[in-house]
Design a protein that fits this description.
This protein has 617 residues and is mainly alpha-helical. It contains 23 helices and 13 strands. It folds into two domains: 93 residues, no CATH class; 454 residues, Up-down Bundle (Growth Hormone, Chain: A), CATH 1.20.1250.20. The strands form six sheets. Strands 11-12-13 form a three-stranded antiparallel beta sheet. A two-stranded antiparallel ribbon has the order 1-4. The longest helix has 33 residues. The two termini are 27 Å apart.
């Protein structure tokens, strides 16, 4: 919807609007106009239009409600009437007795609910991240005095948003290591396939199917653990799944035949996937909106490199011992460290913001009290009214599937990430086979060193994205009067497509023509650089677009990612051997390029689609 202001410059309250300007108008354009005109909060200023304020017609309005006025679609209304109604609407919201809008100099008595997204901080399909005029604002701001804290924190010291920076970052370390453990133990299984094939008298490609099954079960596991975070809490879900995952990691190391090994690897993937599917929920619980992209970047640094660290270290180990079991004992160690970190530092981060501080259940201090929250005993005691029912939790997962924005973005991610997993779990076959059989004839140690290429690419991607994502946010907010919308995150994906496409083409040509390993290193590193940028952008976008369902969107992301990797593991090597790696990898590059069409659709229409289909409740 477009609306045109008067031909001449005019002033409305604090709003100085140039003439002859055509602007895109959202469904709540008058609410935003009133905000700009009267500052924040409206109720602390004169709740009427200033004397002599101009009046002008706004046409082609979408169907919306402003104050008590129901505006039909395509109607024409007077700005003066609707701006007055918008002010009235703000007064009605701000004066609700059960909702408290805490300012910087106010303290809550704990008897009222603090609105986590006050109306002053809302902007149709986005949020207000920055205010210039802070006089009289009811919004709590960061130390810089301009950045709006979202969600708005309470005065409760047990509110995870109020925890110390040290505690928050220790929890970030815990959940990042848990995410690393998932793919580390999964991908480490690609290193010993040749040794296992020789012991069990099977082809390397047949033995490699255990890795594909492991990845498939990781996808299924995400659909189990995500609802559990809403039923029994974040901490118990991660603790018990990690504990059971450790048991099956040990069993994979002592398996005596392929059938037992295959079954154990499947169940191992089912449990350990929790580390990568639910940890975004922890980040959302303890960090403010403006902090999340950087924290997700640090989390993704460990998460995205984990499938490369696994085979890298596993190849080094079995290169010395020549025992395939040692690769999986390495996974046991990584899993054990994850469990110890959970016991040492993790706490329950779920905080029901629909309840006032005085109604929040008591959280005792000390290790024993925290252990009760880790094991779920505290959650069982306070379950009623604080956590969700089984029905509601699983219904939320299904509701996610009804959001076209999520499905479009994840379909694009599916088409991009598949090839990263495909290359990784096929490395031992592609490069470990003798040259006479079409491989590079690399030793285990050489295969290990080869995995440094994508790790360096991911690190460079984190360094670039760490600053570029913040730059995008600041630039967008500056150009949109302090308002931020999630679609701004998608710009990074266009940039990341370039190294992904170039990297796949270079790897395909190198494998087909047996070029120097330097070509493989550069191509794989470029592809990993792009994957890192894409992963952070996708996670940040979905979390910003649907902040009420962080675990659900993260879990569904993992399902799409894992399903793509599961399928590629079966056909990556045979496909390249049949048609040539230049053709197979070139086709993969074309698919990545085509996936950008889906991103472009969301970039252009995501705003409208999110409004039409609503949030996840």
């Amino acid at each position: 919807m477009w609306w045109r202001t008067p031909e001449t410059r005019f002033e409305l309250g604090a709003l100085d609007w140039p003439g002859r300007r055509k602007s895109r108008g959202p469904p709540e354009v008058l609410n935003r106009l009133a905000k700009l005109a009267f500052g924040f909060p409206v109720t602390q200023r004169e709740a009427t239009l200033p004397h002599g304020a101009p009046d002008f017609a706004i046409s082609e309005l979408p169907a919306c409600t402003v104050g008590g006025i129901n505006v039909p679609q395509h109607s024409t209304c007077k700005a003066r009437d609707l701006a007055s109604a918008a002010i009235h609407d703000f007064k009605a919201i701000m004066e609700k007795p059960e909702v408290e809008h805490i300012s910087n100099d106010e303290k809550s008595d704990g008897s009222r609910v603090v609105d986590k997204f006050p109306p002053e901080a809302r902007a149709e399909a986005g949020v207000l991240l920055q205010v210039e005029c802070t006089e009289g604002t009811s919004l709590r701001l960061a130390e810089d005095g301009h950045t709006v804290l979202l969600p708005q924190p309470t005065d409760d010291p047990n509110d995870p948003l109020n925890w110390s920076s040290r505690k928050k970052h220790l929890i970030l370390l815990v959940v990042a290591w848990a995410a690393l453990t998932s793919d580390f133990t999964s991908a480490a299984g690609s290193a010993p396939v040749i040794l296992q094939a020789a012991e069990w008298h099977k082809s390397p490609n047949s033995v490699n199917h255990n890795n594909s099954i492991n990845v498939l079960m990781m996808a299924i596991g995400g659909l189990i653990w995500v609802p559990m975070t809403s039923i029994i809490g974040r901490a118990p879900t991660l603790f018990w799944s990690t504990f059971l995952g450790l048991i099956f990691s040990i069993l994979s190391s002592v398996s005596t035949n392929f059938e037992m090994f295959m079954g154990v690897r499947a169940i191992q993937g089912l449990f350990l996937t929790s580390g990568q599917t639910i940890t975004i929920a922890f980040i959302k619980d303890i960090f403010f909106f403006h902090e999340r992209a950087r924290k997700i970047g640090l989390w993704a640094l460990m998460y995205i490199t984990s499938p490369y660290w696994g085979p890298l270290l596993a190849n080094f180990v079995i290169g010395e011992t020549h025992q395939w079991q040692d690769a999986f004992w390495l996974g046991v160690g990584v899993n054990g460290i994850s469990l110890l970190l959970i016991l040492a530092f993790l706490d329950e981060t779920w905080y029901n913001r629909d309840l006032p501080s005085s109604a929040q259940p008591s959280r005792g201090q000390g290790f024993f009290s925290r252990l009760l929250r880790l094991t779920g005993l505290w959650q069982i005691k306070h379950h009623s009214g604080y956590f969700e029912s089984v029905y509601d939790a699983y219904k939320r997962v299904l509701l996610i599937l009804s959001k076209p924005v999520i499905l479009l973005v994840l379909a694009a991610y599916f088409l991009c990430f598949a090839w990263a997993i495909g290359v990784n779990i096929s490395t031992a076959i592609l490069f470990g086979l003798p040259q006479a059989m079409g491989g590079y004839g690399y030793s285990f140690t050489q295969l290990g060193y080869l995995h440094f290429a994508p790790i360096v690419g991911v690190f460079l991607g984190e360094i670039f994205g760490h600053f570029f994502n913040d730059h995008l946010t600041r630039r967008y907010v500056r150009k949109h009067n302090g308002v931020f919308e999630p679609e701004a995150r998608l710009m990074t994906i266009y940039i990341s497509a370039v190294p992904m496409i170039a990297g796949l083409v270079l790897m395909g040509q190198a494998l087909h023509k047996h070029l120097s390993v330097a070509a493989i290193v550069v191509g794989w590193g470029m592809h990993a650089f792009g994957i890192m940028l894409t992963s952070v952008a996708v996670a940040s976008y979905l979390l910003d677009a649907y902040p009420s369902a962080p675990a659900e969107v993260c879990g569904l992301t993992n399902v799409f990612r894992a399903l793509s990797g599961f399928s590629v593991g079966y056909y990556q090597q045979p496909w390249g051997a049949k048609v040539g790696y230049d053709v197979s990898f070139g086709t993969q590059a074309c698919i990545v390029a085509a996936s950008m069409i889906l991103i472009a659709i969301v970039h252009r229409f995501g705003h409208q689609l999110r409004l039409k289909f609503g949030q996840v409740r």
